[in-house]
């Protein structure tokens, strides 16, 4: 059914919500501006960092966005790495899918620097054929990130699957003509994801692997 599996990172592969929220709130404190609450920051997880900052602080200028980005990166990179762990079953499932011949990719709102760091920390880098970050291309939900991945891998959109935990992931997939899977344990409530008509909703990462392997066998 599918040859290429494209994964969001934060909220899908890794539980980094606490680090993201804490870093954004600390950055706001550094710049003496109103601190966004947890719900507001959860809502922007998945976007590119400049786009996320503009959504949180719509009345601020470009200079503020740059300053906020620098402070956020400072806090995120210095955060306790033990606060961000792979979700249960992720490593085994990804290794199994890779071993079964599925091609794996990442489409993320993270920066290249941030993604390379966590790929190295987790040891997952060899599993992914291609990765795309928001500072290299258009931010979600623009479909361009997926279109670039499909072009490089020479995969028909109908043979690819986008897996993510936010509306931005699923909207991006829909706009690119790619089927989607909604994961319910991440940043956005499953009710928000369901309206994008994913082919599957999962509540644990391992459910994705089981579903894919059943369909491949049939």
UniProtKB/TrEMBL annotation:
Coiled coil: none annotated. One of its GO terms (cellular component) is cytosol. One of its GO terms (molecular function) is phosphoglycolate phosphatase activity. Keywords: Hydrolase. The keyword Coiled coil does not apply. InterPro entries: HAD-like_hydrolase_sf, HAD-like_sf, HAD-SF_hydro_IA, HAD-SF_hydro_IIIA, HAD_2, HAD_sf, PGP-like_dom2. Gene3D superfamilies: HAD superfamily/HAD-like, Putative phosphatase, domain 2. The keyword Hydrolase applies. GO terms for biological process: DNA repair. It holds the Pfam family HAD_2. It comes from the Bacteria. PANTHER family: HYDROLASE-RELATED, PHOSPHOGLYCOLATE PHOSPHATASE. This is HAD-IIIA family hydrolase. It comes from Nitrincola iocasae.
């Amino acid at each position: 059914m599918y040859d290429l599996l494209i994964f969001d990172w934060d909220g899908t592969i890794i539980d980094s919500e606490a680090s993201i929220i804490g870093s954004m709130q600390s950055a706001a404190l550094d710049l003496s501006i109103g601190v966004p609450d947890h719900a507001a920051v959860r809502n922007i997880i998945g976007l590119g960092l400049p786009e996320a900052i503009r959504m949180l602080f719509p009345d601020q200028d470009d200079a503020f966005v740059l300053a906020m980005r620098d402070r956020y990166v400072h806090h995120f990179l210095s955060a306790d790495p033990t606060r961000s762990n792979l979700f249960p079953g992720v490593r085994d499932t990804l290794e199994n899918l890779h071993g079964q011949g599925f091609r794996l990719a990442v489409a993320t709102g993270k920066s290249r620097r941030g993604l390379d760091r966590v790929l190295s920390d987790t040891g997952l880098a060899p599993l992914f054929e291609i990765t795309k970050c928001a500072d290299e291309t258009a931010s979600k939900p623009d479909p361009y990130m997926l279109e670039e991945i499909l072009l490089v891998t020479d995969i028909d959109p109908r043979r690819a699957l986008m897996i993510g935990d936010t509306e931005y992931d699923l909207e991006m997939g829909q706009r690119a003509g790619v089927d989607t899977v909604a994961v319910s344990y991440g940043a956005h409530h499953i009710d928000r994801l369901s309206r994008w008509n994913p082919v599957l909703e999962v509540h644990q990462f391992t459910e994705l692997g089981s579903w894919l392997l059943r369909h491949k066998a049939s």
